[in-house]
Amino acid sequence: MKIKTILVTQPKPEGDKSPYFDLAKKCNVKIDFRPFIHIEGVTALDFRKDKINILEHTAVIMTSRSAVDHYFRMCQEMRITVPETMKYFCISESTAFYLQKYVLYRKRKIFHGKQTIVDLMVVVKKHKDEKYLLPCSDIHKEEIADKLDEQKIKYTRAVMYRTVCSDLKDLATLAVKDAKLKVDIAAPNPKAPSMTMALEQYIIANNKAAK
Fold first, then answer.
1. Which pLDDT does position 158 carry in this prediction?
2. Where does the chain show beta strands of DSSP type E?
3. Are 76 and 47 in contact (CB under 8 A)?
């Protein structure tokens, strides 16, 4: 059967530059983007139940843009004014730059690693006396907490957002388990270092055979 449409289980890329858009044009297929999971913020009411005092902390560890967004959202909902003395330790430079959405970017208060928690810990260890807040999801990597524990860093884990399943009632026919679907395309592989390249090769081969 000739492939005409593809469902990608992630948000539609912003702007008009994406390898998926290039794939759609090249292979003459329609691509629908539909994330199967999404992020929901924890309400201030529920967050208060954890009895976490945000202002007791002198620094914040930001592991993603979601962490940044929900930290400042929570402060706003709880009517907390974040002091200018607050220090931010970001997992990457791009996350650090994203902070400009909420604060004036001052290098003396914003620190970042290269891309991993291991890189960031090199910086954190130079500031062991800070009391850190770790905004996170209800589903998160324990590696971050493990690294902080190893170095005896004082921190508080603060669940400010949750990863939840999206409403997919209109896609009920996908019932993967019931249909016992198998994996036809796996990437990366030696011939296709990216998913879009693997898709392109699969579509071309499949449509050629379907003629």
1. 95
2. 5-8, 30-33, 37-41, 59-62, 87-90, 110-112, 132-137, 155-165
3. no
d(C-alpha 153, C-alpha 156), whole Å: 10
- Give the predicted TM-score (pTM) of the model: 0.66
pLDDT, averaged in runs of 10, over the chain (211 residues)? 80 78 88 76 94 96 94 96 93 91 80 88 93 90 88 94 70 54 67 80 82 67
Domain ranges for the chain: 5-36+166-206, 39-162
3-state secondary structure of 127: helix
Give the number of C-alpha atoms closer than 13 A to the C-alpha of residue 161, restricted to the C-beta side. Answer: 22
Beta bridge partners of 192: 189
Write the DSSP string, 42-55: PPHHHHHTTT--GG
3-state secondary structure of 50: coil
CATH fold label, 39-162? Rossmann fold (3.40.50)
| Contact yes or no for 158/135 (Cβ under 8 A) | yes
